[in-house]
């Protein structure tokens, strides 16, 4: 049965937060504690959000294990980003990091402890002391379940602050008026199939990544880029979508994540000859070089015939750490290896391959989480819209994210956006603006076409076609020929997405409807990724282009902005000027 716009139920809130992961819940906590009425929408129960899967740690220069300071952390982040990260945002994040972590500790997050009671920190890829001199222990860890601990801690605090959760709801579209302000969202209650208009003075997108547009991914099945799809359809650009991180260590054949914390604790990568090959590629940092670097090195070993077993993977050896250390520091990793690779890492090495893991790009924002529109290289904040976490491009990660900066990004910018909304909300009584019927119509028409179609393309077939096209055309190593074919392949799938069909038209918990709506978001992300990648003629960070193997700072030290309409590209400069300190000028990345 098609929904009728006039009868749509409406709810009003000061703020609607879409997504209940680390970023969404850190933001909603600030809002609820300040007395604002806040609704948090989540496709799954909040503690099932994908933040729960983060394993290794959250970075902060606490200096508990060895000397460290935020300026070194900033340098590592800028260098890790291959100089595409905005240095004002990176300074802000690295300076805020220690306080953000201590705040979590005071919230009750169960970090591992040193004998003196301080938070335990482990080494991690790309974390160095004194501007690249030697590895440093900077990742604050709760065993190998840091994201799990963080998510549960934030959920409990939100329950105490009386945050309103809308569990198993899916946001559909942003609602904008003629001036371009965002006034809330349309949303689907999965249990009943009803569509609601949720009016908000401020809307926050915290919908996470979109790694499910690849066939092999460490991402949860919910990571379908819903916030990115909503933003793209509303006319906002997506920034730097060519940059996707392949995590070096996904379980071969399964894609399940094996944390970089394994290498932080002393695990090593070996080829079929038993050689620790990272010593050849990164003599200083070895297995703890940044992720894009390690992934390409592994891929090269496999391509050059030094892969293990059937030649399709390398192995991660950690038996030398001892069963006791593995059980204490990496208990979940042992469980994952036994269940998904059928090996006990206390005795045998784990077969691993690079697997898609994290999107560096997203919806462009400033350090307060405000979404910005871009014209002629200039940015202007959009009234009423914020984006935080993995779906946002605050551009602290640039072309390649430093390990454990993802959890830090969530809490620093979740808190920053929350504070900004509270401070800019003095007139609590300000009434809601009226929402144009045309905005609601657009969203309803999209759903109604799906509901009423009597034949067309199967959701699963189109979804699989997107995943296979991305896997084949947009891998660890790229060529212009492959990328251009990828653009054509994805664009040819767009009309099929417009004719998705599902047989079951029932209302209650109809997962076929949800999956079809998710595919309409996935296609936007896939289009943005392939088009942006095919046009960047250089190699930088995670974008390794065989035709142009060198980084080109003269022509390409700039952010890509992709617009859905006409798949149009624009660009804006990288912010090289930090807030208070000297800039780090570009130099070659060696480890």
| Helical run tally | 16
Radius of gyration based on Cα positions: 23 Å
CATH class of the domain at 438-556 reads Mainly Alpha
Per the CATH scheme, the topology name of the domain at 438-556 is Methane Monooxygenase Hydroxylase, Chain G, domain 1
Helix content: 25-40%
Poorly predicted ranges: none
User: Considering the protein shown, what is the CATH homologous superfamily of the domain at 438-556?
Assistant: Fumarate reductase/succinate dehydrogenase flavoprotein-like, C-terminal domain
- For the residues shown, what is the average pLDDT? 95
How many distinct beta strands? 24
Which helices and strands, and how do they pair?
Blueprint: E1 10-18, H1 22-33, E2 38-42, E3 58-59, H2 70-80, H3 87-107, E4 121-129, E5 134-140, H4 146-160, E6 164-167, E7 169-176, E8 182-189, E9 194-205, H5 226-233, E10 238-239, E11 244-251, H6 261-264, E12 268-270, H7 278-281, H8 291-303, E13 314-317, H9 323-329, H10 331-341, E14 350-359, E15 363-364, E16 370-375, E17 378-387, E18 392-393, H11 405-423, H12 437-452, E19 457-458, H13 459-473, E20 477-478, H14 480-497, E21 500-501, H15 511-535, E22 544-545, H16 553-556, E23 558-563, E24 568-573
Parallel strand pairs: 1-2, 1-9, 2-6, 9-17, 15-18, 19-21, 20-22
Antiparallel strand pairs: 3-5, 4-5, 7-8, 8-9, 10-23, 11-14, 12-13, 13-14, 16-17, 23-24
């Amino acid at each position: 049965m098609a929904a009728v716009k006039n009868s749509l139920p409406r709810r009003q809130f000061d703020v609607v937060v879409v997504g209940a992961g680390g970023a969404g819940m850190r933001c909603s906590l600030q809002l609820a504690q300040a007395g604002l009425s806040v609704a948090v929408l989540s496709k799954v129960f909040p503690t099932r959000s994908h933040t729960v899967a983060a394993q290794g740690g959250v970075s902060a220069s606490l200096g508990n294990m060895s000397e460290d300071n935020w300026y070194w952390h900033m340098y590592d982040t800028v260098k890790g980003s291959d100089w595409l990260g905005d240095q004002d945002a990176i300074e802000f994040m690295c300076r805020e990091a220690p306080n953000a972590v201590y705040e979590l500790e005071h919230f009750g997050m169960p970090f591992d402890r040193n004998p003196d009671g301080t938070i335990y920190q482990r080494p991690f890829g790309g974390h160095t002391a004194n501007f690249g001199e030697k590895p440093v222990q900077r990742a604050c860890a709760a065993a190998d379940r840091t994201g799990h601990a963080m998510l549960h801690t934030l959920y409990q605090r939100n329950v105490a602050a009386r945050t309103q959760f809308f569990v198993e709801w899916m946001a559909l579209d942003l609602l904008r008026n003629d001036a371009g302000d965002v006034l809330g969202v349309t949303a689907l209650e999965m249990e009943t199939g009803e569509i609601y208009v949720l009016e908000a003075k401020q809307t926050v997108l915290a919908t996470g990544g979109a790694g499910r547009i690849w066939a092999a991914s460490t991402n949860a099945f919910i990571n379908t880029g819903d916030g990115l799809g909503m933003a793209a359809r509303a006319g906002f650009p997506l920034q730097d979508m060519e940059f996707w991180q392949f995590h070096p260590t996904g379980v071969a054949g399964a894609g399940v994540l094996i944390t970089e914390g394994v290498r932080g604790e002393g695990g090593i990568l070996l080829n079929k000859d038993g050689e620790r090959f990272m010593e050849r590629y990164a003599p200083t940092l070895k297995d703890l070089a940044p992720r894009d670097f390690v992934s390409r090195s592994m891929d090269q070993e496999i391509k050059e015939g030094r892969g293990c077993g059937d030649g399709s993977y390398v192995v991660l050896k950690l038996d030398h750490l001892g069963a006791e250390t593995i059980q204490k520091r990496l208990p979940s990793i042992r469980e994952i290896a036994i269940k998904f690779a059928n090996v006990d890492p206390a005795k045998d090495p784990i077969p691993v391959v690079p697997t898609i893991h994290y999107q560096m790009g997203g919806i462009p924002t400033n350090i307060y989480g405000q979404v910005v529109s871009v014209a002629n290289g200039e940015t202007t904040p959009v009234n009423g819209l914020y984006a935080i976490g993995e779906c946002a491009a605050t551009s602290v990660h640039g072309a390649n994210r430093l390990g454990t900066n993802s959890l830090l990004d969530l809490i620093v910018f979740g808190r920053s956006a929350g504070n900004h909304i509270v401070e800019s909300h003095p007139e609590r009584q300000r009434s809601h603006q009226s929402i144009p019927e045309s905005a609601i119509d657009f969203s309803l028409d999209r759903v109604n076409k799906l509901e009423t179609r009597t034949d067309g393309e199967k959701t699963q077939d189109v979804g699989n076609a997107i995943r296979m096209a991305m896997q084949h055309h947009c891998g660890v190593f790229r060529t212009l020929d492959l990328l251009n074919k990828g653009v054509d392949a994805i664009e040819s799938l767009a009309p099929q997405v417009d004719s998705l069909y599902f047989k079951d038209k029932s209302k209650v918990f109809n997962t076929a409807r949800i999956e079809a709506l998710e595919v309409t978001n996935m296609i936007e992300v896939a289009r943005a990724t392939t088009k942006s990648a095919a046009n960047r003629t250089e190699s930088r960070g995670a974008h390794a282009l065989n035709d142009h193997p060198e980084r080109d700072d003269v022509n390409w030290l700039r952010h890509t902005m992709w617009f859905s309409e006409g798949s149009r590209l624009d660009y804006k400069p990288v912010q090289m000027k930090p807030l208070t300190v000297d800039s780090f000028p570009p130099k070659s990345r060696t480890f």
